[in-house]
């Protein structure tokens, strides 16, 4: 749920609030609480992308996009309340006491506080605030009742009791899978494939191909087992119509299980299907820290059901497939000693037990390695490693956490500063390639001073060579220690010393002199500013244009110069 305090701070500190237009505190709180109530009720249903395009998932499951006016109407129709998405609290004040088509006073949603979309199966938080990115996120992924126990699972500490695993092996669904296949190796493959994914939600690059009775592979294995456990909304059956009408990105986004049913023959969509298969069986998820960056990540395991073992599309990805021949339904229920009706009842009753079985199943490491993705960085065998850590705990803010829980920036800081401390008082040469890449601005500003403290009072001083694109590091370096590399149009690299005093120079000065960028704002904002400049000569209402500039652009040197030009125009200078 969205934190009221964060919203309070976010709105009050918003650059859109101008002192001469400030509203009273009671109305501000009213709008905040109004916004929070609606946003919390629309978790998973309303979000925006990095371009501030709005999206809404209707209660019937259909996803729509549109302007704030269009989305307001669609939400109002969906929830039968008069909702209005507004740019800021001033817009809402101008509409106070107005009613909509449902006869209610409008309730307002502030567009700048609508969360960004993220699909993050690694957390069950519905809405959260990323301080480093300064963004709200609404998590479109929702845990099913059967999948949720994996959140508390810690593979590193789990020691499976043999008797406990035997108890779980009494699972009816586990017995069904054992009788589904024709040999024990295929059974182990399916259980390892399912259990490994259940525990980690990190896909293997192996598609499971079930060849045989469609009633068993689709109506039972997929519809009665896979979908309830992993969530019906996130298990998609890819059809020929989808492949023909949608992009690969649209098909694969926001799902954790892909099912391909009827494989097309040599037709126009066969090539598209081939491309899709290659994409989803080989591409792996990036690091968890990348998830909030609006990229497409392939989370899903792939299940293919086919009656044709020798289909050319299966042949084309055979290195990334495990083909399993399955028994027919009649043979399976005879082995289980049940009727068709009782079979379905037993499967439904057993879903929670089978989920526990998957969670506690001891994976076959050799088999899991075969199923696992080739897209990962290779890991050295334990005996060949120089540094060997079984558990590496760190005390952070009075909490003890594993090092793998740290952010990329924290890892980077530990590596470089840790090595500096490790090699104190040694004649060492440190080669640091952009050591501040994942740091926030505050850490970048402190990096050189922190590094120097590592060697304070050393009898032997090390040599440190740093490559960087950060003006903060340049500002903490004397000009004799700064070399600037340039590449010309012929790709010839040259090197020169800084021709100004870099030590203590402002970030803006360094950006201009070293990186040859005079603007202090981004390209999108610069384009908007240039648009305003072009309007000056033909703008009949300069005061309105001044208000628009004040409202739209944050504080910068460029904005001040533009406003001066506008004021001069208004006064006839």
Helix content: 40-55%
Instruction: Walk across the major sheet and give the strand order.
Output: 10-11-12-9-13
What top-tier CATH class of the largest domain fits best? Alpha Beta
Q: Kindly state the number of beta strands.
A: 19
What is the terminal-to-terminal distance? 53 Å
Strand-residue proportion: 5-15%
Q: Indicate the radius of gyration in whole angstroms.
A: 30 Å
Largest β sheet strand count, sense and barrel closure: 5 strands, parallel
User: What is the 3D shape?
Assistant: globular
What structural class do you assign from the helix and strand content?
A: alpha/beta
CATH T-level topology of the largest domain: Rossmann fold
Mean pLDDT: 77
Describe it.
- This protein has 573 residues and is of the alpha/beta class.
- It has four domains: 4-139, no CATH class; 148-371, Rossmann fold (3-Layer(aba) Sandwich), CATH 3.40.50; 393-513, 3-Layer(aba) Sandwich (Rossmann fold), CATH 3.40.50; 523-570, no CATH class.
- 42% of the residues lie in helices and 14% in strands.
- A five-stranded parallel sheet has the order 10-11-12-9-13.
Comma- or semicolon-separated keywords:
573 residues; alpha/beta; Rossmann fold; 4 domains; five-stranded parallel sheet; three-stranded antiparallel sheet; 22 helices; 19 strands; disordered N terminus
Give a summary of the structure in a few sentences:
It is built from 22 helices and 19 strands. It is an alpha/beta fold. The model is unreliable at 1-22, 155-168, 285-289 and 373-377 (pLDDT under 50).
């Amino acid at each position: 749920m969205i934190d009221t305090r964060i919203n309070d701070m976010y709105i009050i500190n918003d650059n859109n609030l101008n002192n001469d237009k400030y509203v009273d505190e009671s109305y501000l709180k009213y709008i905040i609480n109004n916004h929070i109530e609606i946003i919390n009720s629309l978790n998973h249903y309303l979000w925006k992308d990095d371009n501030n395009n709005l999206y809404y998932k209707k209660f019937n499951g259909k996803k729509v996009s549109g302007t704030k006016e269009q989305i307001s109407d669609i939400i109002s129709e969906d929830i039968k309340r008069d909702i209005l998405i507004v740019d800021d609290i001033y817009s809402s004040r101008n509409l106070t006491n107005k009613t909509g088509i449902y006869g209610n006073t409008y309730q307002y949603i502030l567009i700048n506080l609508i969360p960004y979309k993220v699909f993050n199966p690694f957390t069950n938080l519905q809405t959260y605030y990323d301080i480093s990115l300064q963004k709200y996120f609404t998590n479109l992924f929702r845990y099913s009742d059967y999948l949720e126990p994996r959140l508390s699972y810690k593979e590193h500490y789990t020691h499976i009791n043999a008797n406990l695993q035997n108890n779980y092996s009494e699972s009816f669904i586990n017995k069904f899978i054992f009788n589904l296949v024709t040999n024990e190796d295929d059974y182990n493959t399916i259980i390892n494939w399912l259990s490994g994914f259940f525990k980690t939600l990190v896909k293997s690059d192996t598609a499971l191909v079930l060849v045989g009775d469609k009633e068993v592979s689709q109506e039972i294995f997929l519809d009665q087992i896979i979908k309830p456990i992993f969530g019906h909304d996130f298990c998609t059956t890819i059809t020929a119509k989808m492949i023909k009408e949608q992009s690969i990105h649209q098909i694969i986004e926001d799902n954790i299980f892909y099912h391909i049913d009827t494989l097309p023959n040599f037709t126009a969509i066969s090539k598209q299907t081939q491309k899709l298969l290659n994409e989803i069986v080989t591409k792996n998820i990036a690091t968890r820290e990348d998830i909030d960056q609006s990229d497409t990540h392939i989370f899903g395991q792939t299940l293919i059901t086919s009656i044709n073992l020798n289909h050319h599309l299966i042949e084309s990805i055979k290195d990334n497939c495990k083909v399993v021949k399955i028994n027919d339904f009649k043979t399976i229920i005879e082995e289980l000693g049940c009727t068709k009706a009782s079979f379905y009842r037993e499967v439904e009753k057993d879903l929670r037990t089978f989920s526990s079985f998957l969670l506690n199943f001891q994976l076959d490491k050799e088999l899991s390695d075969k199923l696992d993705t080739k897209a990962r960085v290779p890991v050295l065998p334990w005996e060949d490693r120089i540094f060997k850590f079984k558990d590496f705990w760190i005390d952070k803010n009075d909490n003890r956490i594993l090092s793998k829980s740290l952010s990329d920036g924290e890892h980077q800081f530990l590596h470089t500063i840790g090595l500096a401390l490790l090699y104190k008082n040694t004649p060492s040469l440190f080669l640091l390639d952009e050591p501040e890449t994942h740091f926030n601005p505050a850490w970048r500003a402190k990096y050189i001073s922190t590094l120097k403290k590592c060697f304070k009072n050393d009898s032997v001083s090390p040599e440190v060579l740093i490559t960087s694109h950060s003006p903060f590091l340049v500002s903490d370096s004397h000009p004799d220690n700064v070399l600037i590399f340039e590449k010309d149009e012929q790709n010839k690299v040259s090197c020169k010393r800084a021709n100004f005093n870099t030590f203590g120079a402002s970030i803006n000065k360094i950006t201009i002199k070293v990186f040859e960028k005079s603007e202090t704002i981004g390209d999108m904002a610069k384009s908007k500013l240039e648009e305003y400049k072009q309007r000056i000569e033909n703008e009949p209402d300069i005061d309105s244009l001044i208000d628009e500039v004040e409202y739209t652009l944050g504080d910068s040197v460029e904005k001040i110069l533009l406003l001066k030009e506008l004021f001069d125009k208004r006064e006839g200078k």
